[in-house]
Amino acid sequence: MGAIEDEVGAEIGDAERMDAPNASSSGQGDVLDDWAQVNFPGVRPDLVPGAPVQDPSFVDEEALRKERTFPIPEEGLVQLAKAFLAKLFVDPTEAKRRMSSDFRFIAPVVPALGDGISGEELCKALGQFNILEAVPDINAQQYDFRTDPFEPNRVWFTARGRGTNTGPVFGGLPATGKSYEAPPQSQSLTFNERGEITKMTIGYVMDKTVGTTGGLGGIFGILYGIGYGLPIPEAQPWKPSPIYKLLSQTGALVSNLQKLAR
Asked: How far is the CA of 33 from the CAs of 13, 44, 51, 190, in angstroms?
């Protein structure tokens, strides 16, 4: 949005420097009309903003990136992230070489105890499950890689994922032949100044209505999607508690929660 604002602002500035006041007003209107036509084709006229939208709630990313810096530039961090992800399932040992000694793996319900799974534990788990044997055609569908302006050493990306279970699961369970399609999930990799990964977060579902995994992300979602959902609440689609369901059915959820809070 910053580039658009600069461009529109520059053009408006040129228009305002015209000698005749009427010409200035007309020029500014023409620029905004052009901006609207380019950016909002087919949009209902009453929904089109009169100018690029600005508000204190929108972070000035350009300014923040200048304030918060990291020795490794964004492009370098993105390439380091992709190099790690490309080997994670294919060669966990090679992926582990890119982890720091204090590496931690964190997902919505993993680990059950502690502040994260170590690199050693993660690679062991990947070897035991052997996702490529169970789902040989797996495609993680990872995209939208970018660094965080608040944490310049952190790369965020989105992953969906799809594949078909045509091989044994956990080394012995028969293939179901079922395909899965995962919902979009927010994931991240955090780096130190040596380019080593200190933290990996995965499986934070952005829209539980998408896909065939019951709204689950990560490995729990894959297992559920191919017909091997684990028999624990954390690995099953979310269900409201009886109390939450009761409070919601009354049609006065907020007021009921306020009463409980008291």
From this structure: 15, 14, 9, 43
Which amino acid is residue 27, in one-letter code?
Answer: G
Give CA separation, 192 vs 79, 154, 184, in Å. Answer: 14, 9, 27
CA atoms within 13 A on the CB side of 130: 11
User: 41: buried, middle or exposed (CB in 10 Å: 19+, 13-18, 0-12)?
Assistant: exposed
Within its chain, how far is the Cα of 151 from the centroid? 15
Nearest Cα to Cα of residue 203 among 214, 191, 190, 188: 188
Contact of 147 with 75, CB cutoff 8 Å: no
Give the count of alpha carbons within 13 A of 63, CB side only.
Answer: 4
User: What is the C-alpha to C-alpha distance for residues 227 and 110, in angstroms, rounded to an integer?
Assistant: 21
Using CB atoms within 10 A of its CB, is residue 45 exposed (0-12), middle (13-18) or buried (19+)?
exposed
The total number of residues written for the chain in this structure: 262
Looking at residue 153, the DSSP 8-state letter turns out to be T
Cβ neighbours of residue 147 under 8 Å, at least 6 residues apart?
Answer: 70, 74, 77, 78, 153, 154, 155, 156
Q: Average pLDDT by consecutive 10-residue portion of the chain (262 residues)?
A: 50 44 60 85 93 95 96 98 96 95 96 93 91 96 98 98 97 96 98 98 98 97 97 95 81 68 66
